[in-house]
Amino acid sequence: MAQPKIYDAIVVGLGASGGWAIKELTAGGMNVLALDAGSRLFEKYLHLSKQLLWEVLRHGNLSSTVPQRKQLIERQPIQSQCYAWGSNPPFFVDDINNPYTTPNKKPFLWFRSRQIGGRLIVRGHGRQLYRLSNHNFKAASHDGYGEDWPIGHDDLEPYYTRVERWIGVNGSVENISNLPDSVYLNCPPMTTGEKLLQSALTFNPSCNYKVIRGRTAPPKLPHKTAKKTGKLTLKSQAVVSHILVDKETGKAAGVAFIDQKTKKTYEVYSNVVVLCASAIESTRILLNSKTDQHPAGLGNSSGMLGHYLMDHIKITLTGLIPNPERFFKGVTPKSDLSGNLFIPQFRNLSDQHPQFIRGYGVQAFTGWNAQKAVTFSMSAYGEMLPRYENCVTLNHQQQDAYGIPTAHIECQHSDNEQAMAKDMTNFLKDVARSADLDVIKVDSEPAPPGTANHEVGTARMGDQAKTSVLNKFNQSWDVSNLFVLDGACFTSQGYQNPTLTMMAIAARSCDFILHEYKRDQL
User: What is the CATH number of domain 6-100+113-125+222-309+455-491+503-518?
Assistant: First the structure.
């Protein structure tokens, strides 16, 4: 009987961090098998009926009059609550086939987008790319809550730069202490909408915040670069159930997965296993990989696996900019009105707010509606504190369509987040009022956890094996050839979108993997 092929590495998940992992590992000479639960883009569009495709292309989302809309919502009751769902229903999972559970009266919206490229290629994704600063990495030293990350901005700086140069970040140099500048491909001139909104938001000369350009980049697919090396094998529609463990060594030997189409189970083998399936999904895989050597889940000797789940707390205000020409000295804007701006954290930097610690940033967008009125929206994203009780476990009483125990997610906002949310709401209202903006809607309370779609934590890195799951290179303390490179590794959250940091962490960890693999240390 032929011996099974043993790859140098298996990478699970091809989103932001997984894409970077296969790009870096193949460039370093490793033969990599990449597995993703989703399909390729052309397969996604094959699932759209002609009527749905026409509706999406014509209007950018699904009209309530489309007959299939009701059927889709019946299959996607959770996913259809995501702001990006309307123009991308096939990019989100079927909730009936992929269920999860939450406690009564503790909702968590787990939005899952499965395809090669992950969430970044979903139409409507903001693609906001911001570095974390040492104010975030060392937040515990600043305010005494939780633990510092085992790394700081200096550790990630060359990897931030590597990622930014490759993807091409657009933005402007601002020299803000708690928001390090990126390396920018260019700084395109502000659109009319951005100028308009910046003028509106800084209308009050006494404001103590700064309004800057949003830092964005178009989606770029690292797996295409990896394929050119000839060292990548890519398997789509592969739902990983658990990691295979060598009974003698206790190390990772490969992974088991179910083919989405045939429902057949396969086992594939490698010398290194890299999880990039997303924070909750990677932890679900690890918890489902328990063995006699690892009875509480693979890599869980600390008991920390699954704990410290975080997602940004979110408050949104929307409205209209009346008489927009007043900001242009009588000149009515005629160019592009769409754009985005960003207000970095301004609370709890030098002074301590009496009601809460940490802080929030505000993403502001402009556009126009069917009546050609200039619209705006402001969403404040606040940092959720890492708390042990916010956790992911396995629900063995329920299985998904592939026979895998589902995730049970328990997460709620603490008093700190609730106090922050009140300040966020008041701030957004004050800004709108001072700029004479017409407010149409403002959230009366925070959206449920998960709504921000920025979930991180559950397999955090740290300096000590007894209080964390991973070391500073994202290597499992318990299983030396196992790495977790997605948002699960976050020690704390920061107020910034996590994607850029996830990619930089993946690049740094892959340098470590390549170095140790060549030394035969994995």
Answer: 3.50.50.60
